[in-house]
């Protein structure tokens, strides 16, 4: 195929060939998807309905849950449909839409995690200025910046990728339309423009990562100076969930990108599941496990729902 304009559809990678394994994959992904919907949906509802959780940290957590829901809802349902209907085809526009929304949600989540690191830094290292630096207007602007940055990157990457001439067929070796796999279908030497956009995005991502690391170096330094053990424990308890989420997100994404050049297609598939499916399921557990305020809000929400049904 000499040009992308001649393509009407792409073929995504299936997890299994036999009908029994296809149904097993469908059932497994359905369970994981419902778990992500339930966990993140409960967190969004609890934060929105409980006025005690209307603080910067929980406002950002609400946005994080939205990004997680967006990520898993963009990739998993189509993969489930492939196994259920035994059809690997996805339309050209559907593939472009999948790339666009995945880039939005994944990069916006990364930018939001950087903002959340700044929130914890101000709360622990600059507590007297927290109300000024993290006011409602400032938080809204930061969240809007995360959304805007994700959308801008999505427009650039999607437009550049789908303007490349494709010479290597239409089989995407992934269970969703991913940028690296689509670039592999392009003609040799035709991806310099997209490489430039990727380098710029990589520099921004690296800058955010350095900012997160430096923020936590100062946070841990400040926490270790707290004289009381109870104060140190309280400070750590507000930071460790975010640090765990950042570590999970960055490590899975990093391993997935490294595996593109050194692993088999089957390993690529596993790594893609790790960074696109696992974080949206695990993040609600991480944040609610040791957070008393959030657990109380979730308990009241569940009790309210039970009373309504009765």
Automatic annotation (TrEMBL):
Keywords: Cell membrane, G-protein coupled receptor, Membrane, Olfaction, Receptor, Sensory transduction, Transducer, Transmembrane, Transmembrane helix. It comes from the Eukaryota. It is a multi-pass membrane protein. It holds the Pfam family 7tm_4. Residues 39-287 form the G-protein coupled receptors family 1 profile domain. The chain crosses the membrane at residues 23-45, 57-76, 96-118, 199-223, 235-257, 269-289. It is found in: Cell membrane. SUPFAM superfamilies: Family A G protein-coupled receptor-like (SSF81321). PANTHER family: OLFACTORY RECEPTOR. Belongs to the G-protein coupled receptor 1 family. This is Olfactory receptor. It comes from Apteryx mantelli. The gene is LOC136996280.
């Amino acid at each position: 195929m000499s040009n992308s304009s001649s393509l009407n559809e792409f073929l995504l990678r299936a997890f299994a060939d036999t009908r029994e394994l296809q149904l097993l994959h469908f059932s497994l992904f359905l369970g994981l998807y419902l778990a992500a919907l339930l966990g993140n949906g409960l967190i969004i509802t609890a934060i929105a309905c409980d006025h005690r959780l209307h603080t910067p940290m929980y406002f950002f957590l609400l946005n994080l849950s939205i990004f997680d829901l967006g990520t898993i809802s963009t990739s998993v349902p189509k993969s489930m449909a492939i196994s259920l209907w035994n059809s690997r085809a996805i339309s050209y526009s559907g593939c472009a839409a999948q790339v666009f929304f995945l880039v939005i949600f994944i990069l916006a989540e990364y930018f939001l995690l950087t903002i959340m690191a700044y929130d914890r830094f101000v709360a622990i290292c600059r507590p007297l200025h927290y109300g000024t630096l993290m006011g409602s207007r400032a938080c809204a602007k930061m969240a809007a910046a995360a959304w805007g940055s994700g959308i801008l990157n999505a427009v650039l990457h999607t437009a550049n990728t789908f303007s490349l001439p494709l010479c290597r067929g239409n089989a995407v070796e992934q269970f969703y339309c991913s940028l690296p796999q689509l670039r592999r279908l392009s003609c040799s030497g035709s991806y310099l423009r997209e490489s430039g956009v990727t380098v710029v995005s990589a520099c921004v991502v690296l800058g955010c990562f350095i900012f997160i690391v430096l923020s936590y170096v100062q946070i841990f330094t400040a926490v270790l100076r707290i004289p009381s053990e109870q104060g140190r424990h309280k400070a750590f308890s507000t930071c460790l969930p975010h640090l765990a989420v950042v570590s999970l997100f960055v490590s899975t994404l990093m391993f997935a990108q490294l595996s593109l050049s050194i692993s088999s297609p089957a390993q690529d598939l596993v790594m893609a599941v790790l960074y696109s499916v696992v974080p949206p399921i695990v993040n609600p557990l991480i944040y609610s496990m040791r957070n008393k305020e959030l657990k109380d809000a979730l308990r009241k929400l569940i009790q309210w729902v039970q009373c309504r049904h009765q």
